[in-house]
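Q&A log
Question type: sequence-to-structure
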Amino acid sequence: MTRSSDAVVHRLIAEDAEVRTALTERFGTTDRAEIAAIVFQDREALSWLESLLHPRVQADYARWIAELASRTDPPALAVTEIPLLYEAGSDGRFDAVVVVTAPAEVRAARTSVRPDARAKRLLPEEEKIRRASFAYVNDGTLEQLDAFVADVVSALTERT
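Response status: OK
Response body:
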């Protein structure tokens, strides 16, 4: 079972009346691109946004994990994708952390935001790798990535 923080945030912005009202009052919009343009240039606005969204994302995860645990056949693993795991201080809530990264030029090519606007507030990739339970630099083939994932799944299911 998997859950994506980005998907949870997108759903909150699209559907949660409190979130939409707060965003409109603060930024005049609920458009994610417009909000990103503001918050990545204004640290205080970013902190406000995170204080609005992070508790709701964490509550969503808590509900999801409780739902999984209450099943008659709970899954052996529950995987969450959290881009700002370390930056949000959430890594302690998980049994293991898997970091998949890529070379700097690949990461830069994948974003439409100026790299320096976000990078200033992110933990360096080397530190994320150091702190992770499992880490993979995604500069190989899809088969190599699949093999890494299979090894991680095997190691984690052996723990349960």
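Response note: The chain has two domains: 1-76, 95-160.
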